[in-house]
Each structure stands twice: as structure tokens, then as C-alpha cells.
Amino acid sequence: MSDTKILLDENEIPTHWYNVIADMPNPPAAVLGPDGNPVTPDALTAIFPMSVVEQEVSTERWIPIPEKVREIYRLWRPSPLYRARRLEEALGTPAKIYYKNEGVSPAGSHKPNSAIAQAFYNKEAGINRLVTETGAGQWGSSLALAGQMFNMEVRIYMVKVSYDQKPFRRSMMQTWGAEVFPSPTDMTESGRKALATDPDNPGSLGIAISEAVEEAASRKDTNYALGSVLNHVILHQTVIGLEAKKQFEKAGDYPDMIFAPCGGGSNFAGVAFPFLADKAAGKDISLVAVEPASCPTLTRGHYAYDFGDSVGLTPLMKMYTLGHDFMPPGIHAGGLRYHGDNVLVSQLYDEGIIDAIAVPQLATFEAGVQFARTEGIIPAPESNHAIRACIDEALRCKESGEAKTLFFNLSGHGHFDMASYDKYFSGDLEDYEYPEAAIHEALDHLPKVR
Ligand SMILES: *Cc1c(COP(=O)(O)O)cnc(C)c1O
């Protein structure tokens, strides 16, 4: 067996997802309705199937993965774990660097891990139509793929600026049979409201979520699917970390530190939470969420109740937030521009169990290019954040002579993001530090809870 690429057999795809709630020191903060009282599961079934709602609040440690879902996972899972020997050599570090390649899925990222599961549960509940939003197009293409696998109709509200800038992501969704509209549209109340204030509104993830949720809530035959943030999404993503644990066992190694890019928290939680079970049992391991300096949700946001969308249609979640009306600067890691974070990720960060750092944009592309030139794979701009943080740690190890084992999640490939690389090479990319004043201002707009 090669010790550069550590593979598992198809039958080693996990049979259960791991639910971190079972190993958290405190129960998760309740999700609240508009009246300030905890939302009941019933309230969520207007837009989600009951099986998904149950997963959202489950306290069971292990949740079985349906055989039909595992069967589709086989198209690309188990994903390979690599030892990045050429990168280690280029850095001259005594540290060992490993990465898990989630870019091998048909859509090119980790997102199908949840899209397939969500489509399955909706189909099982008799739903044949799904709506969602997408920013850069990673989630939209994953749900389009999943819809196709289960013969379902999929409609996608795509943030207008990305719709115009990423025509090939749009074509991908169309290839997999989905309908795609530039958001804000005039098809929903939320969209019309956004257009009334600004006819040239470039859109945002928050507005697109409002449009999709509004449509799902207004139609009995239609449900909503979200690509990050919610507990059931991060649950589905734990296949990444569960596989990685088996792969480290095969390699006879174990990570000291894990890095993953963090937008809504799903790939970070997916790779890190299965290791948190070991940490809860006394193992010394640090789990580091890496976010952009331009959207520093965990590192500079407020830990408070806030809406998940910009209009205020969703229940209130206690999370790190930059404010639901946050207008993200146009950085080139579209998947990391969300104003909030998953409730469990937020709480574990607040309790000091996981760590977070923010990195500036230019340095992330520099790291991504170094990775591509040594390991060969061109990473998604989101993944470059984890690579940056991992390389920085490897360079610290070089200074100190420590031979740490470092592990990062390569959440996706960058084949549809070459326009961003282009900007980087032509010197048109800039660093952007989210202003302190905007962070203070967000406090005034947070919903008042009791
Ligand atoms: C969506 C996305 C992310 C960020 O989303 P999380 O839910 O935080 O994982 C990171 N990397 C890639 C490639 C993505 O598509």
C-alpha cells in the first residue's frame, strides 16, 4: 500500500453518521420562534420532511445512513486521504501534512454528502420538488445532482452577481436538470421587496434564502433544502471525519491539529466533530475553523440570537453572527460569505472546545497556488483558507523543530473558480478587513430576545 494516498474499500463507507450533541458538555441552545419560545418540530415540517426535523434535534450519538444513500455515496466515496509529501518537502517542515480530498464528488465539493441525504428523505416523504438558494453555485449544483438521482424537480435561486459571473456553474445545474433564477427575482415577495429598494440589487445569500424559504412555505408539494448551517447538514458531513479516522488508523498516525474552511460550518464540523469524540475522551487535538478576514463570523462576530436569512423568515438561532443584514464584500470564496454559523460550532467555539482563525484573501491564494504546484490539485478558493492556516502551522513547526501531524480538509476543487485565480495572477485581488464600525452597528440590528 502506498503511503501517499490512503484509500478505503467501498464497504468501509460509514454505516452511521456521528451526532456531536451526544458528546457536548452542555445541551445546545434552543432554536426560538418569533414569539421567543423554542420552535416545535411541527413548525419546521412546513418546509422540511419529519425525518430531517428529527435529525435536527436528535441527541442520539449514531444515526444510521440509509442504504440508498450509501449506494450513491459509492460513486465517489470513500474519498482519498493524502499525505502531502511534496508540499512538506517544499516547505522544509518536520511536520507531516495530510489532506482529505472532497473535490472528487461529481459536483466537486463536500456538499453532495448532504444533498444526497436530503433528497432521499424528501423523496421518501412523498415530496417531488425542492427549492434552494446558491451563492457561488456549489450547493445548487450539488442539489441539482441529488434531485436527478431521485428523479425530483429542483428550483434554484442563485445570487445574481454569481449568476452573471459563474455561467458554467449555472450550466452544470441545468445539465443536472435544475431550473436556475438570478436572485432577487420578481417571483417572490422577498425578491420584490429587495428590488423595490434597489432595482440593481446584486443579491446576497440572505435574500436568496428568503426567496427559497418563502416559496417552499407557500407550496404543499415543495420543500426547502439548505446546504450548510443546520444540524442535520453537519450531521451528514460527518462521513468525512469518520472515514478520515479509519484512514489515519491505516496510516498508523493521528492528527495533532485539524483545519477546515468555515462558511456555515458544515465541512469543518464534518471533518472535525468525529475527532471531538476522542477529545471529549481526553485526547489532545486542536480543531481549527478557518474563515476569511472579510467575513470573520467566529473571530469577530457577536454570539447572539439572530435570523438565518436577511428578511427574518427563519427561526432565531444562537450563533456567532455579523448581523442578518450583513452585505458581504465581493470576495472570491463565495462559500464563506455567510453572516452566521452553525449553532453547535458556535457553542463549542464559545466554550473554548474548538478554535477559529481568520486569514486575509491574498495569502489564501498564495497558499492555494503553492499547493497546486506541489500536490497538483487546484483547490477551491474556500479550501485555500484551510491550506493557508495549515502551511502557517507547518512553518511554525519548522521554526520550533516540532514534528506535528497536521490535517486539513480539501473541501473542493477550483475548476470553476479560475476567474478568481485569474484576478489573483493579474494583481486585481485585494485584501479586505471587515470594518470594526460595521461589527458594532450589527449589534443594533440583532433581534431582541426576551
Ligand atoms: C460551501 C463550501 C464551503 C463552506 O461551507 P461550509 O458549510 O462551511 O462547509 C467550503 N468549501 C467549499 C468547496 C464549499 O463549496
TrEMBL record:
For activity, the cofactor(s) needed are: pyridoxal 5'-phosphate
Keyword Repeat carried by entry: no
Among InterPro entries, the record links this protein to: Trp_synth_b-like, Trp_synth_b_CS, Trp_synth_beta, Trp_synth_beta/beta-like, TrpB-like_PALP, TrpB-like_PALP_sf
Q: Which Gene3D superfamilies match?
A: 3.40.50.1100
Q: Which residues carry this modification: N6-(pyridoxal phosphate)lysine?
A: 111
One Pfam family of this chain = PALP
Q: Which GO terms describe its molecular function?
A: L-serine hydro-lyase (adding indole, L-tryptophan-forming) activity; pyridoxal phosphate binding; tryptophan synthase activity
Q: EC number(s) of the enzyme?
A: 4.2.1.20
Where does the source fall among the domains of life? Answer: Bacteria
Q: Which keywords describe this protein according to UniProt?
A: Amino-acid biosynthesis, Aromatic amino acid biosynthesis, Lyase, Pyridoxal phosphate, Tryptophan biosynthesis
Specify the Tryptophan synthase beta chain-like PALP domain's residue ranges.
Answer: 75-412
As its record notes, the protein acts as a catalyst of: (1S,2R)-1-C-(indol-3-yl)glycerol 3-phosphate + L-serine = D-glyceraldehyde 3-phosphate + L-tryptophan + H2O
Listed under subunit, the entry gives: Tetramer of two alpha and two beta chains.
Name under which the protein is recorded:
Tryptophan synthase beta chain
Gene name per UniProt: trpB
